[in-house]
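quick q for whoever's on today - can somebody do inverse folding on this one?? i tried earlier but teh output was garbage lol. tokens:
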């Protein structure tokens, strides 16, 4: 529901004053400006985003009303990405900015906060997701896992956040954004059903997903997999010898046929697992390369959110003994 300009302006003052207290984690969620509800926007206006998963939502919801460009490209790790001067200039020149939030864009967070304080309309797409969908790492309940897009049902809520935000910025076209969001959400619901089906086909003893870092916990919860990451939630953490040996023991014990590398994370730890398992008489292969913190190349099917999740689910299911079409959800 859209609020009046006066209400939004007053709420901006409250949120800035209460930063760090709100449920959405406003210490990392710069707020919106108070544009007049009847104002007319030039078309297309410019929207800048951070990661590809967010870019994909905005492109689908905004349609031809906006020119959308993302900063963090294919195969780039957002946990470690440092914004350049050009990035800052691009953010400052944008009419609207969207980012993931929950500290995914770790080294960009300060820049995003400063930009929000300048009055720029800036939105974290995770800011209004129902907290019941959010995961917190064990022993660190103060910070939520940012990899929400791995659960399609949860990510659909981010689509609605974008539609509402664009409707606030450009009220005359709010209904168009809502319709676009509904259409995209329907596609995502079909994707969710596909992922559930192919993952459920994996034999029970092989429903263990071992990857380079802890990016798949939402995926595991949503689709019934035990998930083990060699590194923690952020790729800034390092895996030690003890971690490697512990996971080698898991591979030997379960007879797991495959582990997975990630497109945006170095594969050295995964290869160490395979070598360790081989030394103990177990044959484990690399089941494929998964998209975790970044999508595929721009202009490809895997360069869309649907293509990214389709690729991951199909690759995982086939490598772990499940049944999935060779060419996936959309035969692409």
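ok took a stab at it. sequence:
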């Amino acid at each position: 529901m859209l609020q009046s300009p006066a209400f939004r302006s007053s709420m901006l003052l409250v949120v800035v004053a209460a930063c760090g207290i709100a449920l959405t984690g406003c210490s990392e969620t710069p707020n919106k400006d108070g544009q007049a509800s009847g104002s007319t926007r030039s078309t297309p206006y410019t929207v800048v985003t951070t990661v590809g998963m967010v870019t994909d939502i905005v492109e689908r919801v905004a349609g031809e009303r906006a020119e959308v460009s993302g900063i963090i490209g294919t195969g780039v790790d957002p946990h470690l990405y440092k914004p350049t001067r050009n990035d800052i200039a691009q953010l400052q020149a944008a009419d609207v900015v969207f980012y993931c939030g929950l500290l995914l864009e770790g080294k960009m967070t300060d820049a995003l906060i400063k930009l929000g304080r300048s009055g720029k309309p800036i939105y974290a797409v995770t800011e209004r997701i129902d907290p019941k969908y959010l995961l917190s790492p064990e022993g660190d309940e103060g910070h939520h896992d940012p990899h929400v897009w791995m659960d399609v049902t949860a990510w659909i809520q981010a689509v609605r956040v974008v539609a509402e935000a664009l409707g606030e910025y450009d009220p005359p076209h709010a209904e168009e954004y809502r319709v676009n969001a509904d259409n995209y959400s329907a596609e995502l619901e079909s994707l969710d059903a596909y992922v559930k089906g192919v993952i459920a086909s994996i034999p029970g003893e092989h429903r263990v997903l071992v990857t380079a870092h802890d990016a798949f916990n939402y995926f595991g919860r949503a689709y019934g997999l035990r998930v083990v990451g060699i590194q923690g939630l952020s790729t800034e953490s390092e895996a030690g010898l003890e971690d490697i040996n512990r996971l080698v023991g898991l591979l030997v014990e379960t007879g797991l046929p495959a582990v997975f590398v990630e497109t945006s994370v170095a594969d050295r730890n995964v290869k160490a697992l395979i070598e360790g398992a081989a030394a103990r008489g177990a044959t484990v292969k690399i089941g494929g390369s998964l998209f975790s913190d970044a999508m595929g190349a721009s202009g490809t099917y895997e360069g869309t959110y649907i293509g990214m999740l389709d690729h991951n689910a199909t690759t995982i299911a086939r490598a772990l003994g499940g049944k999935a079409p060779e060419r996936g959800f959309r035969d692409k």
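fwiw The chain has two domains: 5-194, 201-319. also Strands lie at 45-49, 66-70, 96-99, 122-124, 208-213, 226-231, 258-262, 285-290. so keep that in mind when u check it
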